[in-house]
Each structure stands twice: as structure tokens, then as C-alpha cells.
Amino acid sequence: MSTSELDFVAVRRSAEPAAATAERSMAGLRDEHGRQRSRIAAGRPEAVARQHKLGKLTARERLDLLLDVGSFVEVDLYRRGTTGAHTDGVVAGSGTVDGRRVFVYAQDFTISGGSLGAAHAAKIQKVMDLAVSTGSPIVALNDSGGARIQEGVLALHGYGGIFRRQVAASGVVPQIAVVLGPSAGGAAYSPALADFTFMVRDTAQMYLTGPDVVAQVTGERVSHADLGGADVHGSRSGVASFVHDDEPSCLAGVRELLSLLPSNNLEPPPALPACGASTDHRPRLAEIVPVEPNKPYDIRSVLAEVVDDGDYLEVHEHWARNVVCALARVDGRVVGVVGNQPVVLAGVLDIAASQKAARFVRFCDAFGIPLVSLVDVPGFLPGTEQELGGAIRHGAKLLYAYCEATVPRVQVILRKAYGGAYIVMDSRSVGTDLSLAWPTNEIAVMGAEGAVNLLHRRELAAAEDPARLRAALVADYRSELMHPYHAAEHGLVDDVIDPVETRAAIARGLAVLRDKRAETPRRKHGNAPL
Prior knowledge:
The protein is of the alpha/beta class. It has 2 domains: 47-260, 2-enoyl-CoA Hydratase, Chain A, domain 1; 277-441 and 484-513, 2-enoyl-CoA Hydratase, Chain A, domain 1 (Alpha-Beta Complex). 41% of the residues lie in helices and 18% in strands. The strands form 2 sheets. Strands 1, 2, 3, 4, 5, 6, 7 and 8 form an 8-stranded mixed beta sheet that branches. Strands 9, 10, 11, 12, 13, 14, 15 and 16 form an 8-stranded mixed beta sheet that branches. Residues 24-273 form the CoA carboxyltransferase N-terminal domain.
């Protein structure tokens, strides 16, 4: 007999009632029932020890950290597949987080490496169906070597059923993927389809083809971490929304995220009591942003002054850092904030930043989260790499996302807002509900220097003192077309506000827009520039 067959027989024998030949009684059956459940939940000691040696928690230990104490209700505890073990390598069910219902599944690496077979997939599909039917978030704890090879196409069919349900649930209930070990091959698509993906450094890896296959096909030698580790996906590929150092902090991060999300698309995000934001003036806002358009500052300093208690949850913190996307509260209510980041690439939009912001905007819109856009953008990043990489198409993703959004939208122009990047960052022309600007705002097709060089090229070339003429022309251009009230005079900015009033103005604007209703054309769906 093979080792797996011996394990199967051992599990079968352990399941047999201890008093099979003795007189049956309710007390005896209940006692055996309790022992059986305890054995299944405890797992094989040697396998649990190996999991801990790898620096990883077990599936049930992870659920204990994620869910409220005593709230977990398991389904299909006794389910078996080709592994012969109860649960078939995935612990599934529901529980609560801060008293709110969520559905969860945690792959169990101690059983056949958490590999997915037909029974394993059926359990996942069951909790996904229950999540959608009850309007509850889905949290997936991934720790799997991928498809169970011995089940062949049945395992692949199981993955397909999961992916189809994820797409059907998209925009209906929040989906959160947590990668705590390997997530290889087809398994990697599940986190990619989720709304947010968490990864843990040193233990999580995610890739379609592993290092051995890469070496065999391309001759390239690469480590698991360099190919699909948390830092790679958190800073380069953009697959990971959040990266944590260990499992406890990661699962605490999932709880924090859930506290900011609605249970489904028909419910509002959980609100806290109002805290007087509509009359809250912040003097520091007048000090953070330099008047000079080319001097850098950290947009997160502005964000901290605008939101309640300076508290926000930044998404994709280490990827496309020239734009900041964050969930926070203003006067107790959840908002999504998109802000250009002048300390990284001067805050320009590029391919990655457009992708990052577009997906965030679409998520907020799908789940009724109002949007606040903090604008200080000099344009799109120039260069052949960007143009040949499809900067037009990727920039159009952000444009499409804002144009499509029907949630309340407030734009605040802090300083620069040039060219197409101004339009894309939720300008009045693409449908923002309320556009505010600081006295430092400069809205124009381009910067004054660049405009003068194009408009007065011949005059400058013929001038005896080109520098003096250029300075005079730049000053004239600024005074005529780039003064802070130019856009307001044409109705493209609703108000020019004192920077210290920004938090109050945003809070008042969101209060006005709270009951906004938008009718959209009847259609199957639009054709976003993917």
C-alpha cells in the first residue's frame, strides 16, 4: 500500500465508532461525535508541526485571528475527496468581523499541500454562493500548491467554477484575497480577480509558472521571492494591494479594511457618528503646500488633515506611488480619496498610476463610496516607453472610470492641473459634482513656460534679449489664463476656497450630495479600454 492509501485507511478507521459492537446510546454517540470533530479540527500533529516550521499558521489558527471569537460556523467539515481526509484541504464557512457577517474559506496546506480538487472546489463554491445570496463579503485565505494533478480536468473545472462565481459576484459583494503561502498556476487568478489582495512577506508567493518552469523554458534563473514574492507584487506588478510582515498583522489589516466596506452593493458603508467636520478649519493646510508650482510636498500630509483623526488606509502603498489611493472617513462617513503625489515623479500620471487609480475609482463606485480627488498634476509622463506601452489606452481607463462613476464626487484643485491630466482627474467636464480650488490653483493646457515657448517661438528667436521677453510673456500668460479665478469665472470651478477650509468644504459638499441619484443608459455594459 502507498503512504496515501495507508493514511486513507487510518482516517477511515478513526471515523468508526469506538463502541461499534457495544450497545448504542445517545450519550455514547454524542461523545464519539465530539471526539471525531476534535480529531478533524486538530489535524495531524506532524503536519501541523511542519506548517509551523515553515513560519505559517494553520487554516484554523488563521480563522481564529480573522473572525470574532466563537463566531465561526463551518460547513462541510466531513467532506472528503481524493485525499481521503476530512475537509479535503479547505476549511469553509462563515463568521463575523466586528459583528458583521462574512463568508470565508481557508486552504489547509497540511492536507495535500492545500491542492484543489473537485470536492475542495465544491466547498469554496458553496460559500461563495451563500455569500452572494446573503449579501456578505467573501474572504479567501490562500495557501495552495495549485490544481490536484491526480484529478486532472476535474480540478481545472473546479477552478473555472470559482472564477465564474468571482466575476458574477464582482460589484455585488466585496471580495478579499489573502495570500499566506504559495498560490501557483491557475490558483493565482483567484487573487487577481478579487477586489483587494493581501500578501505576507517571506511566506507568500504567487505566479503562473514557477522558477523551475521559467528556467526550463527561458534559461532564466530566478528565486521564488523574486518571481512572485510579496514585495514584487506589492511594488512592481501591482497585484498585491497590501503587504504585511507577518500573518497576525495581515489578518488585522483585513479586519480594518472590512470596517470601511459595505457588506454589499445595496448597503452603505458602516458610518460612525458625525464629528463636526463641516466647521473644522485646519490652519496647517495653509502651510503644507508650497505656492511655487515646482516645489514638492507629500500629498499624504494634506490627506491626513482632511480626513477624520488623520486616519486612512492606503491601497497599493508601494506601487505607482505618484498617485495615492486611500479609504478614510470624513465626518464619520467612508470616502475614497485619489490624490496626485508631488514627491514621486512630480505627481505625473503614467501607465501604472492610471491603472491603480482607475481600479480604485471603479471599486468605490460599485460599492457606493463617495470620491474625493485631490489634484496637483503637471500632466502625463512623456517618453517613448510610456507611449509605446499604451499610455493613451491606460490613461483612458482612469478617464472611463471617472466618467462612469455615479457616486458623489468632489474635486479639490490644490495647485497645478495641466492638459489632459486635468481632465482625467475628475474635472467638471467629466462629471464631478463639486469642484473646489485653492488660490494656488493653475488650470491650463500646459505650464506657462511651455505655452510661451510654443506660442511665441518666432518672436523669441528674433529677440535681442530672449530671456527678458520670455519672462514678460510668461507673466502675461499667467495673468490672463492661469490666474486662480479664471476657471471659476467660466463656471468650471464652483468655488475658490481658503486652504484651511478644505476639510469643512469637503464635508459640507458630501452632505449636500448624500442623496444623489443618477440614471444611467440602458445597456448590457460599456466597453472599458482594458
